[in-house]
Write a structure and sequence with these properties.
Layout: H1 2-25, H2 29-42, H3 53-70, H4 74-79, H5 81-105, H6 111-120, H7 127-136, H8 141-168, H9 175-204, H10 210-230, H11 235-249, H12 257-287, H13 291-319, H14 329-337, H15 343-350, H16 358-386
Helix pairs in contact: 1-2, 1-12, 2-12, 2-16, 3-10, 3-11, 3-12, 3-15, 5-6, 5-8, 5-13, 6-8, 7-16, 8-9, 8-11, 9-10, 9-11, 10-11, 10-12, 12-16, 13-14, 13-16, 15-16
Length: about 400
């Protein structure tokens, strides 16, 4: 325990310094953390802590998912639910198919590892983009779409991964059983999230002690995620449901005004710490990848994943083009380039180490996520400015979004 603390506090110090320098230089601090992590390995000063599935699933993912969903307003989400759900289901499946086919035909992978990789890499992770949005002050529909889609498709990707993996590894599960398990994991995860979140709201109602209210939200975040995972349901969707419930119902009185302010500040800090450690360790992991074996297939995978993302956004947007939920071309381009890969893909890849091709998928995933964070993270702000989307509104059919005019 003491050794772990001795490893973490220097990492937090480094993260704080990087965040300050990144703000002054106007680059996403997540990109700075990845670069610093790479340099720490080159200087042989890297922390003796590695990213693992247990660390990501049990420690980092619950607060990140809960914090993001806590700040999404249900009214705004409901107004954009069609594109979010379409891209998080049909779009995610389309992205997985394109990525799997690309790795099979272009990288020469067998269908089994190509399919598993396609599924685990299909979910977007907007952490770096959201950090950029916070720095630029951008709000509105494009941020909501990126953030909400990532929450939903993280859950569906995790469930789809658990359904596809036995089929690809000869686990003896039929396609029908996989589909049934998929729906059980989705519905069960959401139900547990709502149940745990509801209990937290009931317990928080009689008190106005902001410390107790913060504790209840912490219990809701980790309790919903870990309880769902214990019953082999979707912990991601459980934490998402709990966050949406507490964020939208808590302000009606279950959480006091002072408590709400304290809760928001607390979770903003927790998200900063979790993001800092993840991206610093991602840089460390990226520097330790055998580039002689992973660089070319990693570059192929990165391009294939981008093509899959483009297919998802443009095809789903075309399906919505005649509805009041249509997505403007500028938003479509931002959704494509803003579809970063991150923590969930790493967590799923790290769970494959016992399979013959598990290490290969793990290495390629690290390369893709690192390239995604650095290349897309560095260029998303110029893209936002070029598209005139530094200010926007939430309404899906607001014509002002097309030209990016302000209120």
């Amino acid at each position: 325990m003491v050794d772990t603390v001795n490893q973490i506090w220097p990492m937090l110090l480094i993260a704080s310094i990087v965040a300050m320098l990144a703000r002054r230089s106007r680059i996403p601090y997540t990109v700075g953390l990845v670069v610093v992590g790479i340099f720490l390995v080159l200087l042989q000063r890297a922390p003796d802590i590695s990213l693992t599935k247990d660390l990501l699933f049990s420690v980092f993912l619950p607060p990140l998912i809960f914090e993001a969903s806590f700040h999404i307003e249900w009214k705004e989400l409901r107004a954009n639910l069609s594109p979010v759900c379409l891209m998080a289901t049909f779009g995610l499946l389309l992205s997985a198919i394109v990525s799997a086919a690309g790795m099979h035909f272009l990288a020469g992978w067998w269908w089994a590892p190509a399919t598993v990789f396609g599924v685990l890499i299909s979910a977007t992770d907007p952490v770096s983009v959201i950090a950029t949005f916070k720095n630029t002050g951008i709000t509105g529909r494009v941020r909501l779409l990126v953030e909400a889609e990532s929450l939903f498709n993280d859950g569906t990707a995790a469930v789809l991964f658990l359904g596809v993996l036995p089929l690809m590894t000869g686990g003896g599960i039929s396609a029908l059983n996989s589909v049934t398990q998929f729906f059980l994991m989705v519905v069960g995860g959401i139900a547990i999230g709502l149940a745990v979140g509801g209990i937290a709201l009931l317990l928080a109602g009689p008190t106005d002690d902001h410390l107790v209210e913060i504790t209840f939200t912490t219990v809701a975040a980790y309790g919903s995620f870990l309880t769902a995972e214990h019953f082999h349901l979707s912990g991601v969707l459980a934490a998402t449901a709990a966050g949406l419930l507490l964020g939208n119902v808590g302000h009606l009185g279950s959480i006091s005004d002072r408590g709400r302010e304290a809760v928001e500040s607390f979770w903003e800090y927790i998200a900063f710490v979790a993001n800092s450690l993840i991206f610093l360790l991602l840089g460390v992991s990226g520097a330790r990848v055998n580039l002689h074996e992973m660089l070319i297939p990693g570059l192929i995978a990165f391009v294939v994943v981008l093509i899959g993302r483009a297919a998802t956004v443009y095809i789903c947007s075309a399906l919505l083009s005649r509805s009041d939920q249509r997505i403007t071309f500028s938003h479509q381009h931002i959704l494509v380039w803003g579809g970063l890969r991150g923590a969930l893909a790493l967590a799923l890849a790290f769970s494959l180490t016992t399979l013959p091709w598990g290490d290969k998928i793990k290495g390629i995933t690290i390369v893709v996520v690192t390239l995604s964070v650095v290349l897309q993270g560095l260029t998303i702000t110029p893209l936002l400015k070029r598209m005139g989307e530094m200010t926007a509104t939430i309404a899906p059919n607001d014509s002002r979004q097309a030209v990016g005019t302000s209120e």
